[in-house]
Every structure is written in structure tokens, then in C-alpha cells.
Specification:
Layout (H helix, E strand, L loop, with lengths): L2 H11 L3 E4 L5 E4 L1 H6 L10 H4 E5 L6 H6 L5 E5 L6 E9 L2 E7 L4 H8 L11 H37 L10 H14 L3 E9 L1 H8 L1 H17 L6 E4 L4 E7 L4 H15 L3 E3 L2 E3 L2 E8 L8 H17 L5 E3 L12 H8 L1
Parallel strand pairs: 12-13
Antiparallel strand pairs: 1-2, 1-6, 3-4, 4-5, 5-6, 7-9, 7-12, 8-9, 10-11
Length: about 350
């Protein structure tokens, strides 16, 4: 068969073929191979200067190539990207025809050269692999997006379960979680219980919308006056709890409470009217107990809160435990041990 007759057949059946002359130069290349090096004229290039034959080794001439005819070759481009190929050579006239395939390099090739199924022979199994890869990629992308939506929904549900919907603060469930974690760790902390003074009067005279507005403002003020690591929770209609981890110094606790009281005594505007409230605060500290019990500490903070209310409101009281609740002073034991 004449060369001009066979070329169209090779182009249709083997789009990754090369026709080599007796000197090893490329006289014709399939469309897909040309697509891999669009800026390079493959015509008349020497085959062994384009490709590095890795197996069989030691092939340096056209005679070497013809000698391994029918043997599977492993080769790659000499320049980048150094795409890998499998190939087989068949002697033809005074030269040869080499047909190449990507093998396991197909995914890299599709990525590097933007190949499609039109770049392969219709009977090439590579096309089937491309379909499978595309289907797998689509399935993995759909799975990834579904997992992202499920994760976002889970986070949103957890956040909602631990958040007071009116104020955006933590709720009682979140507070219990924080207190249990602190109790297990043994870390020191202060527990502050706040109750709004005159809040019922706002609801009765200006309505529940005004009361909601006041609660939202109070929530913002409490967050402003506390640290990022502190927990501010709404635990009742007009009751709030603040957990101050790592803080047991009475002077610092008093300073925080005073700032909160002063802030909440400023009138809150609502629809042209002023809502006037204050707050009473009771605080207890984990270092006041031999073994802090969260329910007991909540109760003691509540006791201190009502002491503040009885003393005239807009006050802060730190709980004073009974002697049985006070941790023993370790200094006498340490002094005895040192003697």
C-alpha cells in the first residue's frame, strides 16, 4: 500500500501515531500527538530527540528501534510536560510506524492538554476510562457538595440548639455544657447571676416589643463588657448568667459588675420613649468551695443576687460561704511539713 493511501487510515484509527523515515525522522504525526505540542513542528523532527525511550534501554538509532519492533516500549517527552507513553513500533517500507498510548498517564494528559474523547480512536479503551473518570468526578463532586450541606446544616442545628433566639446569647443548655466542662477541668472561674430591675414595668407600660428591645440591648452590653473567652447566657425572661473562666480576684470581679450596672442604668430608647432599668448581680467563685458543684454554685449566686436586691437593687454581692464550704488553708500543713 502506498504511503498516501495508508495515512488517512492511520489518522482515523491511530490519532497518536507517527510515521518515521529510514533515518528516524517524523514524516507524519496523528492529530492528537500534534495537539500535545501545538507550538512545535513535529514534521521532520527526529523521533529519538522528541522522546526518551526508557525501556528497552540503549535505543539510539533507527536500526535499534527497528530491532525491537513488536516490543512494548515505555517512553516520555524529553521536554516538559514530560508525559509518559506506552508504544509499539512496526517496520514499514524503509522506516516504521509507531503507535502511542497514555496508559496510566491518561489523567495527567487530560489535565495537561485538555483532551476529550474526540482526541482518541472510537474503539480506544481510553475513551471508556474517560467516561468512568468523568462519572467518578461528577459523583465525588456531588458527594462533596452534599457533605458540605449536611455539615453546614449540622453546625446550624447545633448552634440553634445552644442559642437564645431573641438575644443571640448562649442559652441554658449551652451554659450547662460550659459549666460541666469547667467542672471536669478543675479550672478556676467566677459565676455571675444578673437579674434586670424594673423590667416588668417596661413590659407593662410600653409593651412586649419594648421589652424585647431592652433584652436585645442588654445582651449587646453584656457582651461588650466581658472578654471573648467569657460566656454570656440568657437563662430566663430577664435573667442572665456570665461565666468568667480564670477569674477569681474579687476586685476584678467587682470592677466588671460595676461596669455592667453603670451601663444598664443608662436609658434605652424605644419608639420615642425611654426604657429605664437597672440590674442586680450576685457572684460566686469556684475557689470558695472544696469541690465546686455547679448546681450549688448556681444556687449560691442566686442567693447573692437576692441580697443585692434586698439592699436596694443596682448592686453587686459576692457570695460568702459558710465555714464548712471554705477550703482549708494549706499553709499550716506546708509549714509543718517543712519543719
Amino acid at each position: 500500500m502506498r504511503a498516501l493511501d495508508v495515512i488517512p487510515v492511520l489518522d482515523a484509527l491511530c490519532p497518536m501515531h507517527m510515521v518515521l523515515s529510514g533515518t528516524g525522522h517524523v514524516t507524519h504525526a496523528g492529530a492528537t500527538l500534534c495537539k500535545l505540542r501545538p507550538m512545535q513542528d513535529l514534521q521532520n523532527a527526529r523521533f529519538l530527540e522528541l522522546f526518551e525511550v526508557q525501556r528497552p534501554r540503549g535505543l539510539t538509532t533507527m536500526e535499534d528501534l527497528r530491532r525491537v519492533a513488536g516490543t512494548r516500549m515505555h517512553l516520555q517527552f524529553r521536554d516538559t510536560p514530560k508525559t509518559g507513553f506506552k508504544g509499539i513500533l512496526v517496520p514499514w517500507q524503509d522506516g516504521a510506524v509507531v503507535n502511542l498510548s497514555f496508559g496510566i498517564s491518561i489523567l495527567d494528559a487530560v489535565r495537561d492538554y485538555a483532551l476529550t474523547n474526540a482526541d482518541f480512536a472510537a474503539t480506544d479503551m481510553t475513551v471508556e476510562m474517560l467516561y468512568l473518570v468523568e462519572a467518578k468526578s461528577a459523583a465525588m463532586e456531588a458527594s462533596r457538595k452534599l457533605n458540605q450541606r449536611l455539615q453546614a446544616a449540622r453546625v446550624a442545628a447545633e448552634e440553634q440548639a445552644y442559642t437564645d433566639t431573641l438575644t443571640g446569647l448562649k442559652n441554658r443548655r449551652a451554659l450547662d455544657h460550659v459549666l460541666n466542662r469547667l467542672g471536669e477541668s478543675g479550672a478556676p472561674f467566677a459565676l455571675m447571676h444578673l437579674d434586670l430591675d424594673f423590667f416588668k414595668s417596661v413590659n407593662d407600660t410600653l409593651g412586649h416589643a419594648a421589652g424585647d428591645r431592652v433584652l436585645q440591648k442588654v445582651a449587646r452590653y453584656l457582651v461588650d463588657e466581658t472578654r471573648e473567652q467569657d460566656t454570656v447566657a440568657r437563662v430566663g425572661g430577664d435573667e442572665f448568667v456570665i461565666v468568667l473562666p480564670g477569674l477569681t480576684d474579687p476586685a476584678r470581679i467587682e470592677s466588671i459588675a460595676r461596669r455592667i450596672i453603670d451601663r444598664l442604668e443608662k436609658p434605652i430608647p424605644f419608639q420615642g420613649k425611654m426604657c429605664r432599668i437597672s440590674c442586680s448581680i450576685g457572684t460566686t467563685r469556684s475557689d470558695l468551695y472544696r469541690r465546686p458543684d455547679m448546681a450549688r454554685m448556681m444556687g449560691d449566686a442566686d442567693v447573692a443576687l437576692y441580697v443585692s436586691k434586698r439592699q436596694g437593687r443596682a448592686r453587686h454581692t459576692i457570695y460568702e460561704p459558710s465555714p464548712a464550704d471554705t477550703p482549708p488553708d494549706p499553709r499550716p500543713a506546708l509549714q509543718a511539713a517543712q519543719k
